[in-house]
Design brief:
The complex is a heterodimer of chains A (about 750) and B (about 325).
Chain A (H helix, E strand, L loop, with lengths): L16 H6 L14 E7 L5 E7 L1 H5 L3 E6 L7 H5 L21 E2 L5 E7 L2 H8 L3 E6 L6 H4 L7 H5 L8 E3 L10 E9 L11 E8 L2 E6 L4 H11 L7 E4 L15 H13 L3 E4 L4 H4 L7 E9 L5 E13 L10 H5 L5 E11 L10 H20 L4 H7 L17 H12 L11 E3 L2 E13 L5 E7 L5 E4 L9 H13 L6 E4 L16 H25 L3 H4 L6 E3 L3 E4 L2 E7 H6 L6 E5 L4 H4 L3 E13 L5 E11 L6 H20 L5 E2 L4 E2 L19 E4 L23 H13 L15
Parallel strand pairs in A: 1-12, 10-11, 14-15, 19-20, 26-29
Antiparallel strand pairs in A: 1-5, 2-4, 2-6, 3-5, 7-15, 8-13, 9-10, 9-12, 13-14, 16-17, 17-25, 18-19, 18-24, 21-22, 22-23, 25-26, 27-28
Chain B lengths: L4 E3 L4 H9 L4 E4 L5 H6 L7 E4 L8 E3 L3 E5 L4 H6 L1 H6 L1 H9 L3 H4 L4 H6 L5 H4 L41 H7 L3 E6 L2 E6 L22 E8 L6 E7 L10 E10 L2 E10 L6 E2 L1 H7 L6 H11 L12 H18 L1
Helix pairs in contact in B: 5-9, 10-11, 11-12
The chains are: A alpha+beta (about 750), B alpha+beta (about 325).
């Protein structure tokens, strides 16, 4: 690759691809520290009540066991007494479980004890010997049964400007008096993230007041903050390392009880402790997409103009923590409608806390909104794409601001062509291939183009490598690769000479990888740090070389071993000389959003087109084509971005057709506990997903023009498939997943 | 996992003795189900008798049929030329099961002996008469989407998860076993049990009895066969229900028929009355529809599996149509 080629946009292979496929990449359960011990959690077998006794005698006597820790003997965790609700997370009320602090059971499989042993097998064996007695109380695990007790989130009650408050423009519930109207209820079951890598932590107290944890987290700094608070330590005394994260989809956005348990265990046995959850435990204690009930009312004129939308939802949360998400956001801004009402409520149940799962609330809300759009188009005898075009908005109807950029019409056109939308018939059940009914559907997604502050350090190494460091994480999208490309362009050097290190809370600070914001935030910091490094080197070179002193920084080139000027090849200063003058000191630059968010409404957009085949006798659904088109601003790496879109689309297939975690309400306990019962798509379920990007830079979000991809890859996929199933069969399924029993 | 002893005899007699004499001993072959059950504490054998050294992997001609060794791998049977020629229904059913990796480990004998996938059976904290007699049936009034519509009792409504066994019961196979009292032959239809009052017993094998082979007699079902498995995803899932269909058709008239269902009962469910209703009739959708109606006599659903009352006849019709067209 020539140094002067532009790297942004190139389909570069992942910089860590070789490490990942050869097993050299180290994940949080793979740090074999000297004298390490292993911890296994014991979970409660009731959903609500109190622990009356724990018999740990047999476990304590089992071979290799170092400790059995429960609320009866746990050391005091100082932050459990002082830390109340987390002020940095205003969307929540209450707080995470304070593990082993009291005898209260708040959900089934809540950790009640942790067994530590000298091998994982011995810890697991002993964990089964721990016997607990309970005083059970009546539990609630069913959202419908608790719907009458649903409440406005506390954060909204306290702050009338909080986005979880009821929203209204125009008249409330105006759809009820509309000429043509619909009112439909939709249900999303509990879905579980289930990344391939299980949640795992290796906790190491390097000194009584210094903690290092190798942890599966999407935010090294957020995790550092949480555990520094839990142990009343200065943040710099806690180090969080997450060099590689094997997928997360949101479930590592929060600190969970197993992490606290491992840190307590390491304190008690005074050895590093490794704790990895089982797949079964991944259902119960590390979050999930909450079961959500929604009602959507819509009215329109006979010529296809929406006159009113009301969208209500009740999402489930735990009894100890109020989890909220933006289920109703898309409804407020996606379509031109003079009257819009939204009402968001929570139902507190005796289950673990939910956490954002890819696309999060927007994906849940889009299932209702985009299904209703299809229902209304059908009532109006209109092509659903035409119906959306008739209600297209050129500015944000929620706040009246112009879009920073919006190329959704271009996405519509690209996607419709690729899926063969012209084959779609208005009348359901018109197309078939033998026993297979064929249908086409579409669903739209949008997500805020969020940007936060981020800092990147850039440093010239003696061998000419530029080392970049940032505390951000890479849960799979290829952050290190994208940053390498951005840096290569900013420095004008071969990407092979750049090393981007991340996943360490000691590196220059960055936010959590979530909400499709990493490239938007860390990208500009990387770019600015590289430009600053180049300018610093020019300044250093200028001290002894007049040609550099007067040169413009764009003129400066980093060639093999030398700093030179593109306008003057004779001017050169060796790296060795620069380093002697302090050129190897890191330049650290923070990049922050400005006031652009006040002036513009900034969103990424996507549309997904599905072709499905439904067997008329067995009700099986197969997605035969899936086309995802995105307006996500500048695409830094077409390959990794395309990969991210495909992954999100496959997640959408799971959401539409198979994913559901069921609780038996009599026991308040999941009956889906493994991949035999909780289905995620296999290769045979996924067509070769076609991805197209508009690839137009957004000049307002940041200098790179990016808007974010992660969420819009999933938002809108499930309704596209549900709408295609309706087009194939005439059957409208409003409760996901669309399994054969619902179609026959 | 509990501690256990492990032995690997090279003679069948030694293996049989080891299990016959020890109530806490059990055979292990591929281990694709047993090891899972041990990890979860559902099976707690104190001795594993590994039979993989026994010479029971052959697939050979024997008395106008195929004799398939109990240790023949699922993948080896599915790919065997004689099986594909003489008993294509069996190959289809095998390939519909599990994943390629599991089929490469699982044996014919082990496939027959796999335990139910009922979620209540798999959770030590929930009631389950099959796992712990007398604790009740969690599924009876629980989440019973996957459960039986035929042959259940109030003690157990679980289903047998094997695909292979559905084909074998349709093909009139016979199970060959050797035990402390010698050899015996068990017709496949009598191998698995209905739950009755003893759901803890899946089969009629006695302690120490070792499956050595399965005999599948030659028949006319070499062309018009189909295994229709309905599941929520395209691969690697247990059946919501499945149908094994085999027809012998001459001049568009059905001379003989075999029909069995999986995912509907505690054992692979042979549909003898429906088979008889097909004989002598033209191979038409109407005939298949009538057979499906006969097949469904006596079916009864629970709260979450009523869909099976419609899905089962639909799947029978689809399987027969596909078999006839094959």
């Amino acid at each position: 690759m020539k140094a002067q080629d532009k790297q942004i946009g190139a389909p570069m292979n992942r910089v860590d691809g070789h490490l990942k496929v050869t097993g050299a990449a180290k994940y949080s359960a793979e740090y074999e520290l000297p004298n390490i011990a292993y911890a296994v959690l014991v979970g409660s077998t009731i959903a609500r009540g109190r622990i009356t006794s724990i018999d740990a005698k047999a476990a304590e006597k089992a071979p290799g066991v170092l400790a059995v820790i429960s609320h009866f003997n746990s050391p005091k965790v100082p932050g459990f007494d002082t830390a109340g609700k987390d002020p940095s997370q205003p969307a929540t009320a209450g707080g995470p479980i304070k593990i082993f602090k009291d005898d209260k059971i708040r959900f089934n499989d809540q950790p009640i004890a942790v067994v530590v042993a000298d091998s994982w097998e011995r810890a697991r064996f002993a964990a089964r010997l721990v016997k607990a007695q309970y005083a059970p109380e009546k539990h609630k695990t069913n959202l419908e049964a608790s719907a009458s007790e649903a409440f406005l989130p506390t954060a909204a009650k306290k702050n009338p400007k909080h986005p979880m408050n009821d929203y209204q423009r125009g008249q409330a519930d105006a759809y009820k008096t509309g000429a043509i109207k619909l009112e439909s209820e939709y249900v999303i079951p509990t879905e579980v993230h289930h990344p391939m890598e299980l949640q795992a932590i290796t906790a190491h107290w390097e000194a009584p007041d210094r903690l290092t944890i190798y942890d599966k987290t999407q935010g090294t700094m957020a995790t550092r903050r949480d555990f520094a608070r839990e142990w009343n330590l200065p943040e710099e005394n806690v180090k969080v390392i997450a060099t590689f994260v094997g997928g997360a989809f949101g479930n590592a956005l929060h600190s969970w009880p197993h992490e606290s348990a491992a840190i307590i265990a390491a304190k008690v046995v005074n050895r590093p402790v490794k704790l990895m959850l089982t797949r079964e435990q991944m259902f119960t204690m590390v979050g999930y997409r909450p079961y959500t009930w929604q009602k959507l009312g819509m009215s329109a004129t006979p010529d296809g103009k929406i006159t009113a939308i009301t969208h209500e939802s009740i999402g489930q949360t735990s009894t100890y923590e109020e989890f909220t998400e933006s289920t109703l956001a898309q409804t407020r801004m996606m379509y031109q409608s003079p009257n819009v009402t939204t009402r968001y409520r929570l139902a507190a149940l005796d289950i673990g806390s939910p956490i954002w799962m890819r696309g999060p609330g927007e994906a849940t809300g889009a299932f209702a909104l985009e299904s209703a759009m299809d229902e209304m188009a059908f009532m109006l005898n209109l092509d659903p794409l035409e119906f959306r075009l008739r209600n297209y908005t050129d500015k944000d109807p929620e706040n009246g601001k112009p879009w920073s950029t919006k190329f959704l019409k271009e996405c519509y056109q690209l996607g419709a062509e690729r899926v063969g939308w012209n084959k779609r018939q208005l009348k359901p059940g018109s197309l078939r291939d033998g026993e297979w009914l064929i249908g086409y559907g579409m669903g739209v997604g949008t997500f805020g183009a969020h940007r936060g502050a981020a800092t990147v350090g850039a440093q010239l190494l003696p061998d000419g490598t530029v080392l970049l460091q940032c505390a951000t994480t890479d849960i799979g999208p290829g952050t290190g690769t994208a940053m390498t490309q951005i840096a290569a362009d900013a420095l004008g050097i071969d990407p092979k000479r750049i090393r981007f290190e991340l996943g360490n809370s000691s590196f220059p600070k960055a936010g959590t990888q979530g909400g499709s914001s990493t490239v938007n935030s860390v990208g500009p910091a990387t770019q600015e740090a590289c430009l600053a490094l180049k300018d610093k080197l020019r300044t250093l070179a200028g001290a002894g070389n007049a040609a550099f002193a007067s040169a413009k920084k764009e003129d400066v080139t980093l060639a093999d071993g030398y700093l030179t000027l593109s306008s003057n090849a004779a001017a050169k200063v060796s790296y060795a000389d620069l380093i002697k003058q302090g050129g190897d000191k890191a330049v650290t630059v923070e990049a922050k959003p400005g006031g652009e968010g006040q002036k513009y409404s900034m969103y990424s957009f996507s549309v997904h087109f599905a072709e499905v085949r439904v067997h008329e006798l067995t009700g099986e659904v197969r997605v035969s084509k899936l086309v995802s088109c995105a307006d996500a601003g500048t695409i830094i790496n077409e390959k990794t971005a395309g990969n991210q879109m495909k992954g999100g689309a496959v997640g959408g297939i799971g959401m539409a057709l198979m994913e559901a975690a069921h609780i038996d309400d009599r026991f308040g306990r999941y009956v889906t506990k493994d991949f035999a019962d909780y289905h995620v798509p296999v290769h045979a379920d996924s067509p070769d997903v076609q991805v197209a990007f508009v690839n137009q830079p957004d000049p307002h979000v940041n200098a790179l023009g990016t808007k974010g991809i992660g969420e819009i890859a999933t938002i809108g996929v499930a309704p596209a498939i549900a709408n295609a199933v309706f087009n194939a069969t005439g059957k409208r399924v409003r409760e996901l997943p669309i399994t054969p029993d619902k179609l026959i | 996992m509990n501690q256990f002893q492990y032995v690997r005899p090279s003679k069948a007699q030694a293996a049989i003795e080891a299990v016959a004499k020890d109530a806490n001993a059990t055979f292990i072959a591929g281990g694709t189900n047993l090891v899972d059950l041990m990890k979860r504490g559902i099976a707690t054998p104190q001795k594993l008798v590994d039979i993989n050294r026994l010479p029971l992997t052959k697939i050979e001609r024997e008395n106008n049929g195929l004799r398939i060794g109990a240790l023949a791998l699922n993948s080896a049977v599915a790919d065997d030329k004689q099986v594909r020629e003489k008993q294509p229904l069996l190959a289809l059913a095998l390939n519909a099961g599990a994943s390629a990796q599991l089929r490469n480990m699982a044996t014919v004998g082990g496939n027959m002996l796999q335990r139910t996938r009922c979620a209540y059976f798999y959770d030590l904290t929930m009631p389950c008469n099959k796992r712990e007699p007398g604790t009740g049936c969690g599924a009876l009034e629980g989440i019973n989407r996957m459960h039986a519509i035929f042959g259940f009792s109030d003690k157990c409504i679980a289903v047998h998860p094997s695909d292979m066994s559905v084909a074998l019961v349709a093909l009139d196979a016979t199970v060959l076993v050797t035990g402390p009292k010698g050899e015996r032959r068990i017709p496949f239809a009598d191998f698995h049990r209905l739950p009755g009052d003893t759901p803890e017993k899946d089969t009629n094998l006695e302690r120490g009895e070792l499956i050595t082979a399965v005999d599948v007699p030659d028949g006319p079902f070499t062309k018009h066969v189909h295994y229709q498995k309905v599941r929520e995803r395209a691969s690697y899932a247990f059946a919501l229900l499945s149908v094994a269909a085999a027809l012998d058709i001459e001049n568009n008239t059905i001379k003989a028929a075999r029909l069995a269902m999986g995912g509907v009962a505690h054992k692979p469910w042979r549909l003898t009355a429906a088979e008889q209703s097909l004989v002598g009739k033209p191979a038409t959708e109407e005939t298949f529809r009538q057979a499906a109606a006969v097949a469904m006599q006596g079916a009864k659903a629970f709260k979450h599996n009523a869909y099976k009352l419609k899905l089962a006849p639909n799947t029978i019709i689809q399987a027969l149509k596909t078999a006839a067209a094959a």
